[in-house]
């Protein structure tokens, strides 16, 4: 297993390219199941999760090709073609490694009338049930059965009729599954209290490019008129707002100045507002976001919330930044029940953080020190790297396979802006 060795203290400066969004790509890829025509995605990030999802897609008979010959630098172009679905079963072995695999349920059901998908199970950040995915699909007319660790979903012989569902709480994944199932339904569907995350907008835009009829895109009420058939399309995956926010925190904690090339300022408004409140200068430009930390960092109170609120996927990284901010900060995590796994590791680096239930109280310290730490999940891993960049001495981050799920060429990008970071084989 690899580990990262980071020597802290370098001020980050320069241009940092932002990749395609993992969480968008993971819902755009299964859209290829909805049509027999080729769907080409541009700007796909090179990530373990994307490779894993593409592997899952081959299970259903989806063919992949890379059109043209271009160097695979940042961002890939991949065409998927599901001329014929050869299986509608997603087995445990492929699903357990990646929770987002549940996103094949809606499209498989819509295209073939049946889908059998392994229950994904919990993960480090929380329990993460899928009850809302199933309730929404039932409301659209599916029959659902749970047996032997699998979800078996079936549509009536004539296809899903479509229907109405109001989510009791906002769920990104369940909204995505419902939208992907509704686009090929016989009738019209209405999804209330839908998630409004930019990744959902990206999903709807691809589906519209494929011929879907969706109203209310970007709002919490989606009305979807089912169509008989969807067509092929070519679509560019949006920039990763969480990757961009993570690197903004990394630059800020070093007192640095970076240009996040390709980032979309509007989509990361809540993060940029938090950074500004902390005392970091952030300017959204047409082709990216400029970040400059030029003065003392101030403690703030932050609470995560569904979009347009502050993303839970940014909580750990902002907490790292706040360990060096003056005064006391209070962070409240409202989305996942166990998303403070980074706290004990940050404490090992000298941070002063107390957790009580959903709240973390962070008292700024003058100095963080390098230590051997363990990554526990994707964003927790990034928070340790952010702290390491500002810590005195050397930090070793183990279990970095979590990072490879969501940060494309992390050490290359950070080195590009001056970080002293190296990936070595673990002993
Ligand atoms: C691949 C992907 O896009 N992952 C993102 C997606 O995850 P994901 O789609 O899994 O997250 P959800 O929005 O569904 O989860 C929000 C909350 O709803 C709960 N819930 C969800 C579904 C359900 O059927 N029942 C239920 O109770 C969850 O446990 C959680 O407490 O949105 C999260 C919230 O922004 C992000 O942190 C993840 O990075
Ligand atoms: C929690 C995350 O991802 P996933 O839903 O894929 O586990 C994340 O991206 O921070």
UniProtKB/TrEMBL annotation:
**Biological source species:** Qipengyuania spongiae
UniProt-annotated location(s): Cytoplasm
Provide the E.C. number(s) assigned to this enzyme.
Answer: 2.5.1.7
For binding UDP-N-acetyl-alpha-D-glucosamine, which residues are annotated in this chain's numbering? 99, 128-132, 313, 335
Q: Which residues carry this modification: 2-(S-cysteinyl)pyruvic acid O-phosphothioketal?
A: 123
Protein name, please?
UDP-N-acetylglucosamine 1-carboxyvinyltransferase
Which interval of the chain is the signal sequence? none
User: Which annotated residues bind phosphoenolpyruvate?
Assistant: 22-23
Protein function: Cell wall formation. Adds enolpyruvyl to UDP-N-acetylglucosamine.
In which pathway is this protein known to take part?
Answer: Cell wall biogenesis; peptidoglycan biosynthesis
List each copy of the Enolpyruvate transferase domain by range. Answer: 7-414
Q: Which family does it belong to?
A: Belongs to the EPSP synthase family. MurA subfamily.
Enzymatic reactions: phosphoenolpyruvate + UDP-N-acetyl-alpha-D-glucosamine = UDP-N-acetyl-3-O-(1-carboxyvinyl)-alpha-D-glucosamine + phosphate
What are the catalytic residues? 123 (proton donor)
- From the UniProt record, which GO molecular function terms apply? UDP-N-acetylglucosamine 1-carboxyvinyltransferase activity
EC class of the enzyme, as a word = transferase
Q: What CDD domains does this protein map onto?
A: UdpNAET
What residue ranges carry the coiled-coil annotation?
Answer: none
Alphabetical UniProt keywords: Cell cycle, Cell division, Cell shape, Cell wall biogenesis/degradation, Cytoplasm, Peptidoglycan synthesis, Pyruvate, Transferase
């Amino acid at each position: 297993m690899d580990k990262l060795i980071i020597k802290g203290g370098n001020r980050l400066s320069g241009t940092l390219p932002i990749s395609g969004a993992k969480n968008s790509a993971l819902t755009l890829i299964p859209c290829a199941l909805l049509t027999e025509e080729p769907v080409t995605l541009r700007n796909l990030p090179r990530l373990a999760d994307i490779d894993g999802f593409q592997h899952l897609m081959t299970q259903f008979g989806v063919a992949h090709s890379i059109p043209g010959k271009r160097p695979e630098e940042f961002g890939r172009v991949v065409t998927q073609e599901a001329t014929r679905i050869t299986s509608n079963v997603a087995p445990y072995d492929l699903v357990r490694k990646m929770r987002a695999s549940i996103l094949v349920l809606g499209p498989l059901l819509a295209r073939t009338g049946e889908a059998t998908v392994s229950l994904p199970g919990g993960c480090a950040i929380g329990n993460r049930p899928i009850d809302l995915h199933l309730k929404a699909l039932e409301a659209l007319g599916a029959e659902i059965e749970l047996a032997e660790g699998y979800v078996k979903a079936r549509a009536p012989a004539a296809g899903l009729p479509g229907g109405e569902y109001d989510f009791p709480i906002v769920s990104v994944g369940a909204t995505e599954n419902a939208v992907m199932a509704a686009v090929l339904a016989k009738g019209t569907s209405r999804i209330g209290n839908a998630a409004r995350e930019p990744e959902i907008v990206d999903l709807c835009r691809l589906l519209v490019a494929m011929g879907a009829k969706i109203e209310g895109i970007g709002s919490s009420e989606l009305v979807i008129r089912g169509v008989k058939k969807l067509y092929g399309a070519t679509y560019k995956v949006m920039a990763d707002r969480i990757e961009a926010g993570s690197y903004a925190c990394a630059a800020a904690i070093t007192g640095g100045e970076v240009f996040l090339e390709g980032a979309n300022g509007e989509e990361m408004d809540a993060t940029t507002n938090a950074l500004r409140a902390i005392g970091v200068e952030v300017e959204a430009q047409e082709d990216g976001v400029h970040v400059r930390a030029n003065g003392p960092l101030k403690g703030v109170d932050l609470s995560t919330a569904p979009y347009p609120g502050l993303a839970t996927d940014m909580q750990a990284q902002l907490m790292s930044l706040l360990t060096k901010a003056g005064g006391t900060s209070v962070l409240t995590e409202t989305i996942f029940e166990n998303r403070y796994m980074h706290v004990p590791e940050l404490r090992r680096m000298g941070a002063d953080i107390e957790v009580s239930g959903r709240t973390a109280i962070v008292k700024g310290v003058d100095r963080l020190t390098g230590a051997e730490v363990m990554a526990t999940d994707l964003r927790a891993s990034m928070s340790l790297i952010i702290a390491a960049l500002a810590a005195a001495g050397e930090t070793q981050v183990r279990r970095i396979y979590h990072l490879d799920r969501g940060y494309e060429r992390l050490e290359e990008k950070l080195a590009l802006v001056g970080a002293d970071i190296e990936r070595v084989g673990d002993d």
